[in-house]
Amino acid sequence: MKPAIIISTKDKAGMNIKAQLEKLKISIPVIEFEKEIIYAENIDKSNEAKYADFIIFASRHQSERKTASLCVHPIGNFHKAEFGGKDEKLCQTSSNLLKIFFQNLNKIARQEKLEGFEITLECTHHGPYVEKPCLFIEIGSSEKQWENEKAARVIAETIKKSIEEANKKPAEKFIPAIGIGGPHYCPNFNKIQLNSDYAIGHIIPEYSLPVSEELIKQALNKTIPKPEIVLSDWKGLGKSEEKQKLLEILKKLNIKLMRTSEIEKE
Q1: Using CA atoms, how far apart are residues 53 and 133, in angstroms rounded to an integer?
Q2: Mean pLDDT, residues 103-117 taken together
Q3: Domain map of the chain by residue range?
Q4: Is 240 or 201 the better-scoring residue by pLDDT?
Q5: Which of 93, 138, 171, 195 could, after both became Cys, cross-link 61 (CB 3.0–4.6 A)?
Q6: What's 175-262's CATH class?
Q7: 186-214, pLDDT tens digit by residue?
Q8: Which CATH class is domain 3-168?
Q9: Do domains 3-168 and 175-262 have the same CATH topology?
């Protein structure tokens, strides 16, 4: 595995993470982008990153809640591309790496005694559009947290440990899946990603429903390895007609549906 880390020079959290990566003497190249990172379209094809086979975007997270948080998520837009990327286009991601990153993020935050931060997945959202597998890892959600050195150190250590694990250990026998339903911060999918054999790639939240058959196929095809299972936050799937439409699409695609309530999470 040959990853590249992308940060924006306009981003205080990204530069904070870069400083912590340098202290760890990490061997993975860190590529600086001079604009907002969500607009780093096709940066995987740049001279600096074209060697890489996986792209890690290290960035700030913003939210109206202003909650202190560390986040991991896949990239893409289910509808209009309002914050980078392309309309109705998803990027490739690795369900195994998303799981490894999220598990390590939780573990290292505990080891470092990082207090007051919520550790969470987010659903698939925003840009940039790249064609190589990728993920975002972020510090949220205000300037106070973006400049927090311990939070940045947790992110840096998570990147280092996760890449080392991916390169040294044989592939875990995780069950690849995508998630559909529920809120942006994915409480049920968080538990599954931490405490089960399922590895979740793209996540389609309730607020993005309904989505087309084409987008569900994209979420499946752009999660590596390709899943044969959709995990549903059933209560967060919208109205009954939306649930019925989803069931019809999955039946047509010959994809199994499981509810998050069916999965042992301990």
Answers
A1: 7
A2: 97
A3: 3-168, 175-262
A4: 201
A5: 138
A6: alpha beta
A7: 999 999 999 999 999 999 999 999 999 99
A8: alpha beta
A9: no
Tokens of 254: 């010959």
